[in-house]
Amino acid sequence: MNFLTKRLLRVNTLLKTSKRSMAFKAPIVKRTPMFRRFPVKSAISMLTLTSFWMSQRYATAEEKYCLVEIENVENLADGEMMALKVGEADNDKVLVVRYKGKIFSVGNFCTHFGVPLASSVLFDDKVICPAHNAAFSIIDGLPEYAPAKDALP
């Protein structure tokens, strides 16, 4: 045995018997696969509950649709907007807009921040939210510019 081999053996024996080195040994962590931590059955049940909740939400939303007669529609100039109350609650308002001679109505509250859109600006066929400049089409309510992701009702 040469000098280097003896030195390595001595260091190894010192490390094995030293209490200080025992304290700094990292525990061996066994990793479990993701599919074992999150069972498939619970994932399927979550998807089922989510789809059930969404279907109930849209079913009740469709039941809330009603026809409302607008009295002051002749007073609206082209490019002008007004909020119209259609229900009992304070939040039951729609935004009525006259654009190129046609009347359009969308939800009055921004889907991103909940700001009323009646005090906003109409630019071409888009209503711009005053809080974060999210833009919605007045024709179909779809978001045109971020940060809004959901369409107006």
Name a few traits of the molecule.
single chain, 153 residues, alpha+beta, Rieske Iron-sulfur Protein, 2 domains, four-stranded antiparallel beta sheet, three-stranded antiparallel beta sheet, 31% helix, Rieske_2Fe-2S_sf, iron-sulfur, 2 iron, 2 sulfur cluster binding, metal-binding, Rieske domain-containing protein
Instruction: Return the structural class.
Output: alpha+beta
Quaternary form: single chain
| Percent in helix | 25-40%
State the separation between the terminal residues, measured CA to CA.
85 Å
Low-confidence residue ranges = 55-62
Radius of gyration: 32 Å
Shape label: rod-shaped
The fourth-level CATH homologous superfamily of the largest domain is Rieske [2Fe-2S] iron-sulphur domain
What is the fold named in CATH at topology level of the largest domain? Answer: Rieske Iron-sulfur Protein
> Beta-sheet strand percentage?
15-25%
How do the strands of the widest beta sheet line up side by side? Answer: 4-5-6-7
CATH architecture of the largest domain: 3-layer Sandwich
Number of helices: 4
What is the string of helix and strand elements?
HHHHEEEEEEE
Report mean pLDDT, rounded to a whole number.
71
Largest β-sheet summary: 4 strands, antiparallel
CATH C-level name of the largest domain: Mainly Beta
Number of strands: 7
